[in-house]
């Protein structure tokens, strides 16, 4: 009987909840999300616009903030409860990753801000506004009360955020942070011939991955590879490709199926240049508490994606902000 | 700011892993699972046949056991770790639901057996055989090493088990057991006009539900409403309907979309009469640690399923074993 | 060798091109088609609004005309060429079904108007405006030049008209007209126990059916059972069901698969009450020039649709205009 | 009013019905079609195996013939009737393309054999065996009597043959043959910078194309680019990609959407090296009797397929038989 030695990991971080994207053309970025991705605008505050995906139980999913250059701002994570939040903050402070408490912002309460070793900005919180509780009085209600907003039936019909893929100068360090500070579990990774991982996929719950780090070949820190949003069916991605084609959005690669994690994908650039993935995992979950991480070699990667598509060059070179 | 009072629930039970079905025509039931549902037979032991769904990381997904009447036998749950297993057993014993340890069986190690208040049989364990580790030497390996078995490309192509829906004489008691003894979280429920729930959907992780209790109108105990299996896309369910049509399998209702939980579904009876659901949840997850359970009234239920299909009478009357 | 005796039928009528719907709430009907079905408004003339489906090579697909009651107005058919038009008119006149020439209207030229034995109004023509030739200068062009309009990515994304299903007091007479006067070929039919057909499906080309007659149980003449529109994939119909659910459109029945013709379907009522079908035939075609019509008995019909859905009562009783 | 000058074309050739493929590994080719493509073997005769796709109303769809090298043998076309057959043969003989009558073979009667200018072998016939009439007594019958065989629910579940894409040394000559001798209508084409077409897509009925010629860059004659088979949904193609991946079949390119004709496609090589396409056209048809052919320039082609996939090199170089 093969007995695993792992399991029993802490589950203090419940899920990825929202992400902030910087844009030098914020209205174009907002239009991309609202018209083509089917988000709704739920608030404006200063240079920022808050956008909501129709099945997000919280107040916002994407915050678009005007900036001189594209890139990723804050990533919000929701704690598994008030005690989990305290435990996690204590752990971060004890291990030298401590940050600061802020009052929160549109839709979310008191938030603990910190950075991963690569400099990406995170906010961890418990108190949150439920979309249904605060928005249903003034905004359209869905026909089925077990979803936040009416199904938009428009463009890509994005249901929810799925994951963030960060570029990091030191992938092992960034991955260790996800594991040791946030309680993430490694599900798959790319391991270079020298044995060093160049990309690591971590999950928090049953989804196959939530937070990913990919080696930044430029050696820069704090950059974004892509933010991914989930749609219900692979057919939604095929249809979205036609929507993007008509709208003149740059389609980088796909639709196709990743060998790693088997996700069906499409990559486009929103108007500011941030790479956006549409993804569908089918019914695939990683349920094992002691999941054995799957490692992929450079040789295996050379075979291309699941059905043979070669990885496009820009996938290795394009990140935001651009490196001068 | 709406602050939730819940969260921080124990996460000792990781996931539903397998189920035992009784059949008075076991070879026909096995043929249904192997030929039409695309399971593979992985072991035989006495009157039982062990069947594996292609993306189950463990050794088996369904155990078919010859018996005088159809129905559900044991439900296996995997603990979140060795400490979680101990904690949970201690909790069960302390709260009067204690059972017994057994050595385990094909594919799984030492197992703690207990019953819910309605008499359904459960087994909780940690040690398990990984399909990849024990079967790849003698059985076909998949093209992609992040799945257990080759994609079958046959019949309904079931990826994994999804949930069990039990019939229970006392639904509130059965639900309380899932919450208090197993750490489940109520996501949706049907509440009768007298305020008493007649069906409760509980989840353990991010999936929208794993264990469900529905009122047994006959007042019997320990019966089964249905076992559900997940496919990757709604299209898989439409195709499966043609497969069942050709095979002469009784299609009870569907394909359609549930209002409750929004699952796309198809219900059939396997040859022994146990109701089997094929389901696809799209990208829907319940991520909130403090999810507000959605309650449906009899009046709302009267509208039928999401797109108006009236619930078929047998859905309320058929369970296994039949009541004499 | 089984040698067919048929074949060599005239092919003078090329295809169904457009239909006129009467509505007592014409703006609501137009809104249904534009917002939910993704048609575009291309012209207004008097009480009529002309609507275009994105892959219709001609100028319009549906003409909505204000009227005191719902129902079907004219059905337009395009001839296979100028000689075919002349031949067909000559044939109609010779066989006692002659009508009158009119100058045509928005988008189509000189048109020969006539009626089928049940009183339905038809227009046969050759000269037509190509959408691309007349509309691309002032309206959005598609990204791919082999379609008329940009893919809308909105609501049901209807590609084209598919078929018209008329109610007729005398189905055999109406069917004989399609065969003898229009050159249609019977592909499937429902035959009552007395041997008389109560529904007949005729096609003109390779599509499995274009013009259908169903027995009008009220004995009325000239009424409509439904007009059907084609979408690309079955998934489009599932998504459209959510769109209609959110919009409060009455979903009569479906999605499901017809046993007859195997079409995947969804039936809704547009705001005036005219029944609208969304359909997808997959890759099914009837290519045989000597196709043996498939006949369905009442007993076979009693089994329900392909996957067992019982035919809903209103499907047998609802037609437009309503019978007082 | 834009009046077309065309239309009224002869419709003597009803449809593409079957194709013969040469294979130096005929049993492997048969296994590919039976196990992975879901054809059934219906006859053997000498070195040939006759295979049937489940919705083909005739006796066979593909004839696999053992040969020293891969490539295409005969293409069978069914006439629109006995008179159409006579007319067409008379026309072929009068225009210098006359061939010979043979008695026919498995499933089809007296056949007129001829060649196109590039040397591809054709058989035109009227008398045919209906699968239902001759096979239902001894082989499984479908659940729905409006299809030939039971839905296989296996592998790629091919419904029917869709088109043949020939390589030709002289594309304009080959295209003119399709138009003038067979009554085909040009729907789309690639036109080189010198104004000469390098690929032409012709259809016979309402399908967007049936017979295609692509320039053979080697200057050889009589070769094959690919044979295509239709599946019902795009999802079937995605699933088939997984089936081929598991089976070790070479996937050349796709799944993706062609810009030309907008077909969703996947290209694989069967074991002998003949390129096989799986295709789905959605609900797209070319209904206009005077369809304006769509022409694509080299510059437009350089943009890649509809969603940006670059055309893979082997698509321009691989044909069968290989050129020494």
TrEMBL record, chains A, B, C, D:
Source species of the chain: Nocardioides mangrovicus
Keywords: Dioxygenase, Oxidoreductase
InterPro entries: Glyas_Bleomycin-R_OHBP_Dase (IPR029068), Glyas_Fos-R_dOase_dom (IPR004360), GlyoxalaseI/FosfomycinResist (IPR050383), VOC_core (IPR037523)
Protein name according to UniProt: Catechol 2,3-dioxygenase
Matching PROSITE patterns: VOC
Keyword Ribosomal protein: no
Keyword Oxidoreductase listed: yes
Matching Pfam families: Glyoxalase
Domain VOC per the UniProt entry, residue ranges: 15-127, 160-281
GO MF term list: dioxygenase activity
């Amino acid at each position: 009987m093969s007995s695993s030695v792992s399991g029993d990991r802490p589950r203090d971080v419940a899920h990825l909840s929202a992400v902030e994207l910087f844009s030098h053309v914020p209205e174009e970025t907002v239009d991309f999300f609202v018209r083509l991705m089917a988000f709704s605008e739920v608030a404006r505050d200063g240079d920022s616009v808050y956008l909501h995906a129709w099945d997000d139980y919280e107040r916002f999913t994407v915050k678009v903030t005007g900036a001189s250059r594209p890139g990723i701002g804050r990533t919000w994570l929701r704690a598994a409860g008030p005690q989990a939040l305290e435990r996690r903050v204590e752990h971060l402070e004890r291990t030298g990753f401590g940050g600061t408490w802020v009052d929160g912002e549109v839709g979310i309460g008191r938030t603990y801000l910190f950075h991963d070793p690569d400099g990406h900005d995170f906010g961890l919180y418990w108190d949150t506004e439920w979309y249904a509780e605060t928005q249903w009085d003034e905004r359209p209600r869905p026909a089925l009360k077990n979803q936040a907003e009416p199904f938009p039936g428009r463009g890509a019909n994005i249901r929810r955020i799925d994951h963030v893929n960060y570029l990091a100068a030191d992938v092992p360090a960034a991955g260790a942070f996800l594991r040791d500070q946030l309680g993430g579990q490694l599900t798959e990774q790319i391991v270079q011939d020298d044995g060093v991982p160049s990309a690591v996929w971590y999950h928090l719950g049953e989804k196959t991955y939530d937070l990913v780090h990919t080696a930044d070949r430029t050696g820069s820190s704090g950059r974004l590879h892509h933010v991914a949003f989930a749609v219900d069916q692979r057919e939604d991605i095929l249809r979205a490709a036609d929507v993007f084609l008509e709208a003149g959005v740059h389609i980088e690669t796909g639709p196709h199926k990743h060998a790693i994690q088997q996700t069906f994908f499409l990559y486009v650039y929103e108007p500011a240049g941030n790479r956006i993935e549409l993804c569908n995992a089918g019914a695939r979950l990683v349920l094992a508490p002691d999941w054995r991480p799957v490692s992929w070699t450079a040789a295996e990667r050379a075979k291309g994606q699941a059905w043979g598509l070669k990885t496009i060059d820009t996938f290795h070179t394009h990140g935001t902000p651009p490196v001068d």
